[in-house]
Design brief:
The structure holds 2 protein chains of 2 kinds.
Chain A lengths: L3 E2 L4 E5 L4 E7 L4 E9 L6 E7 L4 E4 L2 E6 L4 E6 L8 E9 L7 E2 L3 E6 L1
Parallel strand pairs in A: 2-11
Antiparallel strand pairs in A: 1-3, 3-8, 4-5, 4-9, 6-7, 7-8, 9-10, 9-11
Chain B lengths: L4 E3 L2 E4 L5 E6 L6 E7 L5 E8 L2 E5 L7 E4 L6 E5 L8 E8 L10 E2 L3 E5 L1
Parallel strand pairs in B: 2-11
Antiparallel strand pairs in B: 1-3, 3-8, 4-5, 4-9, 5-6, 7-8, 9-10, 9-11
The chains are: A mainly beta, B mainly beta.
């Protein structure tokens, strides 16, 4: 089941620079997309989301972009901070479901001071 | 800030034994979920629960699994006869007040289940 894919297992960025995490999906029925952050020994923490009727959503340092024609979304973190170092999961949901989330494999982000 | 809690944090059991994983969702939430993550793999959906019944379940959620919300506060996942391949981190999640969409789920810290 590869409906949601994060092709980069890891990303390393310098503090203060931009982090860009990417996610691709194949299921055209997905209409809501989310990013979660996960630290070791903790559960995923909701970060930001976007509905399929939008192409951009911004919350502080975090912006999510959605390109429906390409079935691609990305998370931009500007400026990156060492505390952002974590695993980032992309997830998607279909409007017809009771909120079932389909997750990508995750990308390990390391922000160096 | 309200949070989802899970107990125990780590459960070790022998193959064939029954286990019950417990969760206390956020109190005014209406939708409840179990997910699992096998080491090195994706987080996978197991089951969703709404209005005191299962609303959706995955292929993984076979007859060995059951869920219950016995007292309006706890939400449990039972595995009747554990297998080695059930070893994973199990996450409980909840969301939703009346009229909202069940997307932005809040996750608990997880229970690590080890089947020997």
């Amino acid at each position: 089941d590869q409906q949601v894919k994060q092709n980069s297992p890891s990303l390393s960025v310098q503090e203060g620079r931009i982090s860009i995490l990417n996610c691709d999906y194949t299921n055209s029925m997905f209409d809501y997309f989310l990013w979660y952050k996960k630290y070791p020994a903790e559960g995923p923490t909701f970060l930001i989301s976007i509905s399929s009727i939008k192409d951009k959503n911004e919350d502080g340092r975090f912006t999510v972009f959605l390109n429906k024609s390409a079935k691609h979304l990305s998370l931009h973190i500007v400026p990156s901070q060492p505390g952002d170092s974590a695993v980032y999961f992309c997830a998607a949901s279909e409007g017809t479901s009771y909120g079932k989330l389909t997750f990508g494999q995750g990308t390990i982000l390391t922000v160096h001071p | 800030e309200p949070e989802v809690t899970q107990t125990p944090s780590h459960q070790v059991t022998q193959m064939g034994q029954e286990v019950i994983l417990r969760c206390v969702p956020i109190s005014n939430h209406l939708y409840f979920y179990w997910y699992r993550q096998i080491l090195g793999q994706k987080v996978e959906f197991l089951v969703s629960f709404y209005n005191n019944e299962i609303s959706e379940k995955s292929e993984i959620f076979d007859d060995q699994f059951s869920v219950e919300r016995p007292d309006g506060s706890n939400f449990t996942l039972k595995i009747r006869s554990t297998k080695l391949e059930d070893s994973a981190m199990y996450f409980c999640a909840s969301y939703g007040t009346s009229g909202s969409k069940a997307y932005e789920q809040y996750f608990g810290p997880g229970t690590r289940l080890t089947v020997t």
